[in-house]
Amino acid sequence: MSLPNVIIAGAPKCGTSSLYFWLAAHPDACASRAKETFYFADEVNRFNKGLNFLENGLEPYQKHFEHCRNSKIIFEATAPYIYFENAVEQIAKLPSRPKVIFMLREPAKRLMSQYLFERYRTGRRNIPFEDYLAIPDRLPHGLYTSYLGKWEQALGRDRMLIYIFEEFMNDTVAGMKDIAANLDIAPEFYDTFDFTTRNETLKMKSTALHRAGLKIQEYVPHWLQSIILPIYLKFNSSGKPQATDEEKALLQKKVGPYYKGEKKRLEEFLGRPIKYWD
C-alpha cells in the first residue's frame, strides 16, 4: 500500500504550508499532490468530498500517493488534523506507522493570523473580530496541550515531532535539518536551500479567483508553482492585512487571559522552555 510514513498534522497558521513545500523539495521526500487531503476529517467537507475515510474507508487514501511508490518519505499536511478525533484514531492505526509533525505558534498570534487569513485571503469569514471569537471552536483551538495529550496516548511520544513556530522561523535551516535528521534523510540538503514562505496572510483582490486557484493547485507541479505564485500574488493581492487598534485591544483583553497558563502547560509537556512567546 502507498501510505504516508510522515503526516504534518497542525496547527493551522503555524507555517505548515511552508513546511509542506520545503519538505517536498527534498529529493528523498514525496508529497501528496493536494497539500491538505482532509482524508481523516471528522466530517465530509468541500476539501474531501468524494475521497474521505468516513465514506470510503482506508484503501482510497492511497490515491493521494500513487506517484510516490519509490520514495523514502511519503507525506501529506492537513493542518486541522490536530483537532480531529477521527484523525487521531485512524492515523494511529495506519500500517505505515507515520511520524506526525506538529508546528505550534503563540496561541493569540495564531488566532489573529487565522482571523485575518479567513477574512482577507479566503473571504470565508467576513465578520468583525469580536464575532469571530464567538465561534465555538476558535478560542479552544489554541489550547494545544488538550489535543496533544490525545495524540500522545494514541501514537506514543516517539512518533510525535513537535516544533515551536517562532523558534523554527528564527533558524529555519536548523529547524529543517532537525526534521530531516529525525526522518533519516540528508539534512545537508537544507544548507543552501531557498526558504520561500508559502500561504502568507495576504489580502486578495478577488477571493473568487483565489478559490479557483486553490482548486487547480494540486494539479500543478511544485516547481511550476514556485514560478507562478509570485506572479499571481503580484496580480491578485494587495499586501498583508493588519489588525486594527480595536482588534488588538480585544486580543489583549479577551484572548490573552483565555490562554494564560498554556505556555507553562506546553513547556511541561515538552520538557523544556519555549522561546519567543510573551
Can you tell me about this structure?
This protein is an alpha/beta fold and 278 residues long. It has one domain: P-loop containing nucleotide triphosphate hydrolases (Rossmann fold), CATH 3.40.50. It contains 12 helices and 5 strands. Helix 2 (53-56) links the parallel strand 2 and strand 3 (73-77). Helix 3 runs parallel beside helix 6. The protein has helices at residues 16-24, 53-56, 85-93, 107-121, 129-133, 144-155, 165-170, 172-182, 207-217, 222-236, 245-258, 262-270; strands spanning 6-8, 29-31, 73-77, 99-104, 160-164. The protein has a 5-stranded parallel beta sheet, with helices on both faces.
Write the layout of secondary structure elements.
Blueprint: E1 6-8, H1 16-24, E2 29-31, H2 53-56, E3 73-77, H3 85-93, E4 99-104, H4 107-121, H5 129-133, H6 144-155, E5 160-164, H7 165-170, H8 172-182, H9 207-217, H10 222-236, H11 245-258, H12 262-270
Parallel strand pairs: 1-3, 1-4, 2-3, 4-5
Total number of strands:
5
Radius of gyration: 18 Å
Give, in spatial order, the strands making up the sheet with the most strands.
2-3-1-4-5
Q: What is the CATH architecture term?
A: 3-Layer(aba) Sandwich
Give the count of structural domains: 1
Shape: globular
Number of helices: 12
CATH superfamily: P-loop containing nucleotide triphosphate hydrolases
Mean pLDDT: 90
Structural class: alpha/beta
Uncertain runs are none
Helical content (DSSP H or I, runs of 4+):
40-55%
CATH class bucket: Alpha Beta
Main beta sheet, described? 5 strands, parallel
- Helix/strand order: EHEHEHEHHHEHHHHHH
Looking at the structure, the CATH topology is Rossmann fold
Strand percentage, roughly?
5-15%
